[in-house]
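Changelog excerpt

This revision adds worked examples to the README so contributors can see how folded entries look when concatenated. The first example is reproduced verbatim below.
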Amino acid sequence: MDGWKVIEEKRFLIPSLPPSCNAIYQIIFSQRRVEMKPEVRAWKNGAKLYVPKITPLDDSYLFRLDATFSYNFFFLNGKIRKFDTHNMMKVLCDAVAEKAGFRDELVKFGSWHSIHNTEKEQVEIVVSQIKPEP
């Protein structure tokens, strides 16, 4: 990364895929409030078991989160599954930041891509603590 120095890097795997950000919240009209869906909360809690602790060194450090999503791109009938992989990044970033110990707004860089995998659904993550080079 031009102009940025990687201070610390952690690699880990979460053996399931996060839900899409299109399906994070439910509206409870009778109570006039919005809350996270139970299945999203359950995924986040389960995913946090795999996330290592990362302590920000000081307020000038930022984070980069790179994710590789592995899943079967197709249904059994051969039609393509409509997975919005980029929409999974919000829930993933929130879960990683909460467990790792930094604020999610400090994630300023990153990437995602998908790998066709008929055997398992998972996400491989690299979190880097970075600082501007002098």
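The second example, added in the same revision:
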Amino acid sequence: MGLFGYRKSATHLVLEGTAIHLRAPRRRDYLNWFAVRHASLMTLQLREPLWSEDALSKKRFLRYVRDYSLAARYGLGLGFFIWDKQFTTLMGACNLTHIRRGPAQTAELGYWLGDAYQGNGYAREAVYLLCRHAFNYLDLHRVEAACMDDNIASQRVLESNGFYREGYSKKYLKINGSWADHMRFALLKEDMQH
């Protein structure tokens, strides 16, 4: 294990937490990913862009893995799956996207959990681990997040990690086929709760 609980395998970074670990998606994770997404289909569709007919296909999953691998290689994003500590149960995902360098030094945070794993603090810990990595290792200054204004659980996850509300964006993202209002949050490196 490395500094701050990070362990790097030959090809993948692992962010080690107390109850969970974050690990980059791998091609062999398809069945675990399919199981949690399929079991939580109705809930996830309410909070995500409209799913295509092949949203749960292996082909779509492999494209997802490839896209996150390329984003990591070029410093544009980082994608992680949320696992139990034994890496037997995939519970969700936590990602940084749209990493911007130069004077901004910022990224956007997104996450989801399967229905069976909500309410146990896993999302809170995943957000903490990824933000700590963003600030300590990627040297970002700011992480931004948005969630639908009726998603109280997600707002609590962000606020429990020190994110503050920056504002309200009307019809910010097209979710499940309709433009949805979102609350906007941000966390600065100097405000990170250690």
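Reviewer comment on example two: The first strand starts at residue 6 and ends at 8. Helices lie at 30-39, 41-45, 58-73, 122-136, 152-160.
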